[in-house]
Amino acid sequence: MIRFQAVHKSYRVDGKDVPALHAFDLDIVDGEVFGIIGHSGAGKSTLIRLINLLERPSGGHILVDGTDMTMLSDAQLREKRQRIGMIFQHFNLLASQTVAENVAFPLRLAGERDAEVIRRRVDELLARVGLSAHADKFPSQLSGGQKQRVGIARALANRPSILLCDEATSALDPQTTAAVLDLLAEINRELKLTIVLITHEMDVVRRVCDRVAVLDAGTIVESGAVADVFLHPKHPTTRRFVNEALPEEAAGEQAPFANVPGRILRLSFRGEATWTPALGRVARETDVDFNILAGRIDRIKNLPYGQLTLAMQGARVDEALASLRQAGIEVEEITTLSPENRA
Ligand SMILES: Nc1ncnc2c1ncn2[C@@H]1O[C@H](COP(=O)(O)OP(=O)(O)OP(=O)(O)O)[C@@H](O)[C@H]1O
Question: GO molecular function of the protein, one example (predicted)?
Fold first, then answer.
């Protein structure tokens, strides 16, 4: 468990303290993939670097598995950091060392001297990230995705219980991003380690995270299970991120519904409800008509979900909505959204 207690952080700039993170509490539980999303300058890097104390908090406590990181001596902190792996946007590999030497580096740093032990561990790690054939290459001979795989192998070398990912896919194209995120999800599942990642892309959160915190100008404005935050964003900043990830839905919300006859509704289906033909059944039973304005079916991590924006007409619309809710479908009336909420 990673626990932030009343943590805040200011940087000293031109003799003045400038706040980067306002006081916050946050728990990240063992084995989850926790995302922190925010725009540039929101404080994401600061927050993630507080976990391994690459940044020291201006106040408050950071507990990792019950140990207060702020109380450790330098030697204790070095030891603790070996159990907290980290990967970076620009990979931070040693250019003059081979892939195998880069992965061996943290093992040597931790005091391992036995060449055979190191070789076996490096082989195992390179196999895990799919780079066994590239052990003797130099970083400059690898693609971005391969470099990040080396970064991941290196971060896992000392069997950490936590992996911190600092914009780990921001320098990669969408296909490579998807492959690296799949690898992170696999590592989380199989090694049961906790992953904390920061990103400015909601799609990264949607693909791999269990929970998410939205950071806006140094404040956590919203947090919770990804499906809840994604399907029912409350804060305008969250809504903007979600709309980036759901362009069709965004277009639907901004359509001129004032001219569409009927009540404008948004239906959200999760899990099994995504595949049941409830809408057709309810329409037949209650004699309502519906017109689909926007929609999509996708996945939030392993959870299938669907969202439909539709206009519904008929004398028994309220009855239809009650039946849909009973079938496990979330129903929101969106004609009543204020212009601010539609942003
Ligand atoms: N070492 C530093 N000294 C002074 N100010 C800093 C320092 N590091 C960060 N800041 C400031 O703190 C705020 C938060 O920065 P941080 O890098 O944590 O944000 P971020 O969300 O990670 O941004 P980005 O996505 O651009 O990396 C910014 O206003 C930034 O200018």
Answer: ATP binding
Q: Looking at the chain, how many residues does it have?
A: 343
CA of 41 to the centre of ligand 1 (A): 5
Residue 192's Cα: distance from chain center in Å? 17
Q: Is 40 in the pocket of ligand 1 (CB under 6 A)?
A: yes
Question: Is residue 338 assigned to a domain?
Answer: no
For 258-311, how does the pLDDT look when each residue is reduced to its tens digit (9 = 90+)?
678 889 998 988 887 777 788 999 999 999 999 988 888 888 888 888 888 899
Provide ipTM, 2 decimals.
0.97
Q: Which atom of ligand 1 is nearest to the CA of 46?
A: 18
284 is in which domain, residue-wise? 248-333
**Ligand 1 contact via 45 beta carbon (within 6 Å):** yes
Contact 156, 163 (CB under 8 A): yes
Does residue 278 lie within any of the structural domains?
Answer: yes
Q: Are residues 167 and 258 in the same domain?
A: no
Kindly state whether residue 339 falls inside one of the protein's structural domains: no
Q: Ligand 1 centroid to 56 CA: how many Å?
A: 14
CATH of the domain at 234: 3.40.50.300
Ligand 1 atom at minimum distance from 215 CA: 21
37 lines ligand 1 (CB under 6 A): no
Residue 341 lies in a domain: no
